[in-house]
Amino acid sequence: MASTANALSPSLSAANSSISKPKTLHDFYLRFKNPNAISLRSKRVGLPVLRLSGITSPRVSASSAQLMHQSVGEASSRAPTIVEVDLGNRSYPIYIGSGLLDQPELLQRHVHGKRVLVVTNNTVGPLYLDKVVDALTRGNPNVSVESVILPDGEKYKNMETLMKVFDKAIELRLDRRCTFVALGGGVIGDMCGFAAAAFLRGVNFIQIPTTVMAQVDSSVGGKTGINHTLGKNLIGAFYQPQCVLIDTDTLNTLPDRELASGLAEVIKYGLIRDAKFFEWQEKNMPKLMARDPSAMAYAIKRSCENKAEVVSLDEKEGGLRATLNLGHTFGHAIETGFGYGQWLHGEAVAAGTVMAVDMSYRLGWIDDSIVKRIHNILQQAKLPTTPPETMTVEMFKSVMAVDKKVADGLLRLILLKGPLGNCVFSGDYDGKALDDTLHAFCKS
Ligand SMILES: NC(=O)c1ccc[n+]([C@@H]2O[C@H](COP(=O)([O-])OP(=O)(O)OC[C@H]3O[C@@H](n4cnc5c(N)ncnc54)[C@H](O)[C@@H]3O)[C@@H](O)[C@H]2O)c1
Ligand SMILES: [Zn+2]
């Protein structure tokens, strides 16, 4: 079994060891422009490899020792694909598959202590809470499960709502040996994770993401937090879960608009680091929009692999991890300026991606065929390609000024540069290009 550390190509070993101190931004770009050279640590526990859409990855195997008693046919249809997030003693598995909430052993092996607090909301709770409680307790009478149901929506991703989790945990007199379980989309995952990081200075935590957005992005990598009225996700912590359990069946109840929103992040991985995946998406977008199970499972798996690789190399966002924010600086300005919850996160990211791509083109860093392909794929995914009409240049500028990627007063952006699949995280650009982009997309 290869570990990420010893499987790195020489160039990436160098990049990894000096992530926090690139000599110049150009140097930084050169070192990170081919991150696909790395090999992800994989787990192979001995059962049949799951093949998805005819595409196999030698690095990911579908297996679970506890499933050995099942027949091969049953096991291969139910065994999870496992993507490992390699973070030394904080490494954890991402289980991906259909019907995983019916496999209690997957969750139970990651529960610490005897008391569990499930954090969910008033939309997801009625759909999946009973199933999750059953998965946590079946054959395991010593464990008691309580829940806290939060109001649904990005506008509740704030300190007041977070307090409800602490209130419940304290009322229940939970101690350090408890486990918090996030059941829901990215809002619940981010809030529950932050609550787990802060409660008693840190308790065990499990992610059960139920949106495409959460399954391909937010549940992986340990970024947790809440919004402030002046900016998104400004208060939070890096805090890794014990495992991420992705039961793809939960997507059956997800509204179409939410599905499309999550695809914005899938497209992002292709653009910043995985041209082959982008090409696959160009061919398979109709299948993803139609929720074809094997296409969706492949998109989730490949997205998680990309995210896991980036997070393994740069957990605390010294540099490389920031590239996952393509389109997000513009997108966060839309979410904040337009009001949380008006546009979905992925919708704002889609429009923001078009703006970042426009700026990259103005700088002469990419050719126009890339611009066209990005427009096409976003349109196929029914995602917006322009910001809301009410957004002004001033609104963009004032929100972007408090972005987390501002360093020493300089706004650093993720921009595409070179062939498809390459990007830079840089403050070293001609400010006129940014101004021109903002004026091109805003009426005033
Ligand atoms: N931590 C990270 O690294 C990271 C990465 C990306 C996004 N995020 C955050 O994630 C949030 C967006 O996440 P999201 O798009 O999942 O939004 P969300 O959590 O608001 O979920 C979207 C909607 O779908 C509902 N829902 C969830 N699962 C469902 C299901 N299976 N069936 C029916 N309805 C369901 C929710 O109740 C909600 O109404 C943002 O706050 C964003 O900042 C965080
Ligand atoms: Zn995002």
UniProtKB/TrEMBL annotation:
Catalytic activity: 7-phospho-2-dehydro-3-deoxy-D-arabino-heptonate = 3-dehydroquinate + phosphate
SUPFAM superfamilies: Dehydroquinate synthase-like
Major location category of this protein: plastid
Annotated GO MF terms: 3-dehydroquinate synthase activity; metal ion binding
Class of enzymatic activity (EC top level): lyase
A GO BP annotation: amino acid biosynthetic process
Record domain 3-dehydroquinate synthase N-terminal: where: 148-260
Domain of life: Eukaryota
Localization, UniProt: Plastid, Chloroplast
CDD domains in UniProt: DHQS
Transmembrane segments: none
The EC number(s) this enzyme carries: 4.2.3.4
Keyword Metal-binding recorded: yes
Cross-referenced InterPro entries: Dehydroquinate_synthase, DHQ_synth_AroB, DHQS/DOIS_N, DHQS_C
Known pathway: Metabolic intermediate biosynthesis; chorismate biosynthesis; chorismate from D-erythrose 4-phosphate and phosphoenolpyruvate: step 2/7
Cofactor requirement: a divalent metal cation; NAD(+)
UniProt cross-references to Pfam families, sorted A to Z: DHQ_synthase, DHQS_C
Domain 3-dehydroquinate synthase C-terminal: 262-406
UniProt KW keywords: Amino-acid biosynthesis, Aromatic amino acid biosynthesis, Lyase, Metal-binding, NAD
GO cellular component: chloroplast
Family according to the record: Belongs to the sugar phosphate cyclases superfamily. Dehydroquinate synthase family.
Entries under HAMAP family matching the protein: DHQ_synthase (MF_00110)
Function: Catalyzes the second step in the shikimate pathway.
Descriptive protein name: 3-dehydroquinate synthase, chloroplastic
Organism from which the protein derives: Hevea brasiliensis
Lineage: Eukaryota, Viridiplantae, Streptophyta, Embryophyta, Tracheophyta
